[in-house]
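Notebook p. 47: complex prediction with adenosine-5'-triphosphate.
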Amino acid sequence: MLVMKNINKTFQTGNIQTHALNNFNLTVNEGDFVSVTGPSGSGKTTFLNIAGLLETYTNGEFTLDGKDVGQLNDNGRSRMRNEKIGFVFQGFNLIPDLNLFDNVDVPLRYRGFDAKERRRRIEENLERVGLASRMKHLPSQLSGGQQQRVAIARALATEPRFLLADEPTGNLDSQMAQGVMTLLEEINQQGTTIIMVTHDLELAMRAIRTIQVRDGRVSELDVVAEKASA
Ligand SMILES: Nc1ncnc2c1ncn2[C@@H]1O[C@H](COP(=O)(O)OP(=O)(O)OP(=O)(O)O)[C@@H](O)[C@H]1O
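Predicted complex, structure tokens below:
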């Protein structure tokens, strides 16, 4: 469970202060699929980076699975991030010289799993995203949608509780975007909590909850959840 209470984030650039988050409040429960929409510059990526422990916040309360994130130092944050969080980005961020197997292996090597366990996780997760038969291919030999699937397999290989996705379909045409969204829904149904930033309202509305960020705060909550239970 992720709880943010009155989170503020101010960036200082020279003399200019930017209040990226202003008393941002959000609770994300285990098993949620939350989509985050809102205008450009409203604070969506800042929120996601704080939620994913990539960035610190200026003040407020943030607890992740009951742990007070504000009490953690850099090492503590990294450990928690490695343990609990997987990321998917708009640009896939695959390593071009490595085949799919080796791309998914990167975070597993980093985490120190033995070769047998790594192989099990790589095969299982490439299977999950429908690319088990392409393990020896390079990213450049795949479509954009397939590359994003590999990035999702890589994120899932460490078995994170939370999958955070920043515009995961932003580089994909509509059909591929729908396919990636369907995959994310399956992953969510299998138990991973997902938070996804997107400009695509149609995709956003497919999530269990849709929130809108405006001027660094949550302005509207649970449109879809209300609709679904109506
Ligand atoms: N490292 C930084 N230094 C200074 N200002 C920043 C930094 N990162 C973000 N900002 C500012 O914080 C505000 C929120 O940015 P953020 O990237 O979170 O918005 P966003 O909603 O994700 O936008 P977009 O939809 O365009 O990606 C913006 O005004 C942005 O310029």
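Notes: The CA atoms of residues 124 and 229 lie 34 Å apart. The domain at 2-229 is CATH 3.40.50.300 (Rossmann fold).
Next step: compare against the earlier run before touching the bench.
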